[in-house]
């Protein structure tokens, strides 16, 4: 576990930033392959789209962490809000603002949002998995003490060590990254079967939020509760409920519109009278 990969003079190349960049590259690469295979020419937008979503996602992730998780600290240290290299990026905020920015870009370029989102969803969860590697190397998004002689011991320079010292901690960020890979496979598998437009992206939101809800019981980087749950759990619960309803509704719309399409395609053509 190394926070610094190397130095160029006195300028540090941080593992956190390098892994975040790798996450964006991996996500964009997978999205490019899936979009190109789809054959609608949308892969030509992937560089501009990825940059737009990545910038918005990083801003959203940072602000979500600052205002929902660490405002008690940053409220008294406003100038440190841009210091992302200290750690503190909430994926949920990144997905929210990134989705809004992505919707704006797709509408601007007359691209079907739901169809594009279905193709992009596996790439997004893969990028999140690589992003958790950044958290591990930086020593943030850590778990709470295991209470035993097993767990991760973080270096003294990390926030995890400053919070819990030499106590072994649950590998929350590692498990989340591994679960993200399983979700990635599940989305690819689901997308290979017949489904309603938009259901792949909604399934991504449901599966990730479910995993995040339970993993939050192991997280130890913040402990603020609302109605007995952490803020990330409250958000996850809302996404799960809304996602399930939307998943069912999209399936209903698909079945409702299918007979209309079949009737139109199979209707006999009438001959014109001369």
Keywords:
two-stranded antiparallel sheet, cell membrane, mainly alpha, transferase, 274 residues, phosphatidylglycerol-prolipoprotein diacylglyceryl transferase activity
Q: Please count the beta strands (DSSP E, at least 2 residues each).
A: 4
How would you sum up the major sheet?
A: 2 strands, antiparallel
C-alpha-based Rg, rounded: 22 Å
- Helix/strand order, N-terminal first: EEHHHHHHHHEEH
Shape: globular
Q: State the helicity in percent bands.
A: 55-70%
Q: What is the topology, as strand order, of the major beta sheet?
A: 1-2
Structural class: mainly alpha
First CA to last CA: what distance?
83 Å
Q: Strand share of the residues?
A: under 5%
**SS field, number of helical segments:** 9
Summarize model confidence as the mean pLDDT: 87
Structure explained in plain terms:
Belongs to the Lgt family. It is a multi-pass membrane protein. By secondary structure, the protein is mainly alpha-helical. Helix content is 64%, strand content 5%. A two-stranded antiparallel sheet has the order 1-2. A two-stranded antiparallel sheet has the order 3-4. The longest helix is centred in the C-terminal third of the chain and has 36 residues. The relative contact order is 0.11.
Sequence-ordered SSE layout with sheet pairings:
Layout: E1 4-8, E2 11-14, H1 15-38, H2 46-69, H3 71-74, H4 91-108, H5 113-138, H6 159-164, H7 172-191, H8 199-215, E3 225-226, E4 229-230, H9 231-266
Antiparallel strand pairs: 1-2, 3-4
Binding site for a 1,2-diacyl-sn-glycero-3-phospho-(1'-sn-glycerol): 132
Membrane topology: Multi-pass membrane protein
Protein name: Phosphatidylglycerol--prolipoprotein diacylglyceryl transferase
């Amino acid at each position: 576990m190394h926070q610094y990969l190397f130095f160029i003079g006195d300028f540090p190349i941080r593992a956190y930033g390098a892994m975040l960049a790798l996450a964006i590259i991996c996500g964009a690469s997978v999205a490019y392959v899936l979009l190109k295979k789809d054959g609608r020419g949308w892969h030509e937008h992937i560089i501009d789209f990825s940059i737009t979503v990545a910038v918005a996602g990083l801003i959203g992730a940072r602000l979500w962490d600052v205002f929902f998780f660490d405002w008690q600290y940053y409220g008294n240290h406003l100038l440190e809000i841009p210091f992302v290299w200290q750690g503190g990026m909430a994926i949920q905020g990144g997905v929210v603002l990134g989705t809004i920015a992505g919707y704006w870009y797709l509408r601007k370029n007359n691209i079907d949002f739901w169809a594009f989102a279905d193709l992009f969803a596996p790439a997004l969860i893969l990028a999140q998995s690589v992003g958790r590697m950044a958290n591990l190397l930086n020593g943030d998004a850590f778990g709470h003490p295991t209470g035993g002689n097993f767990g991760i011991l973080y270096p003294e320079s990390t926030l995890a060590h400053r919070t819990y010292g030499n106590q072994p901690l649950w590998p929350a960020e590692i498990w989340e990254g591994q679960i993200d890979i399983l979700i990635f496979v599940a989305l690819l598998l689901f997308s290979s079967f017949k489904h309603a437009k938009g259901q792949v992206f909604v399934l991504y939101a449901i599966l990730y939020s479910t995993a995040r809800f339970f993993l939050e019981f192991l997280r130890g980087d913040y402990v603020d509760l609302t109605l007995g749950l952490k803020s990330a759990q409250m958000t996850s619960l809302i996404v799960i409920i809304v996602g399930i309803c939307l998943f069912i509704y999209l399936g209903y719309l698909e079945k409702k519109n299918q007979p209309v399409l079949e009737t139109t395609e199979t209707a006999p053509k009438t001959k014109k009278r001369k």
